[in-house]
Amino acid sequence: MPPVEEGAATHGILPIENTIGGTIHQNYDLLLRHELPIVGEVTLPVVHNLLALGGTTHAMLTRVYSHPQGLAQCERFLRTLQGVEIVATYDTAGSAKMIRDGQLHDTGAIASQRASEVFGLSVLDASVQDYPDNTTRFLIVGREQNAVESAEKTTIVFTVPNEAGALFKALSVFALRDIDLTKLESRPIPDQPFQYLFYADLAASREDLPCARALAHLAEFAPLLRTLGSYPRWREPTADGAAG
Fold first, then answer.
1. Could you confirm whether 119 is annotated as catalytic?
2. Domain check: are 92 and 163 in the same one?
């Protein structure tokens, strides 16, 4: 996120949810902390491999590094590695780099085929994720929210008063206008014990009249309401490379 804010990059890509590991909660916190609007989304298949330095064997491994999500997505495979310590790190590719930089012949990493190529590691086991259709959804953020005529999704964050029926009332502003909520997540507010932020994905552009009216209705009683972005829905590329 900082490289985008500082102008070193025009866009950033943020993993937000995975079909095996679920939501990447910390990244919702980043969306709120940084004033970088969501401008798009990408859904990609994720293939994990067990990587190690050349010459390393399974019998030599004493630990395996990876990001917590990478470890969660390969949990069943990792349980087969007897006597091996599982260590959470900041990044999957970063785990491969740590092995290369430290010349750690007793350490493996759960990472991509591309990471093995970049950092000169060998693939001990390929495609070790628990499910073959492992998929991650990424959000694309930029420095400015440009008007997008093809926007079909809107992501918002809001709070509600701590009173009976408050969340029901908040969600009803969308139900009454037939706006589909494709995702709803709650996150604790750090400086307000047992109070929560609610993140929602709406299947509508914020420029659509029903959505605009729903957000205006919600703003009447939500102490906090912020639109994090309105953007096109991801479509799988067609044979000619265009989005389908």
1. no
2. no
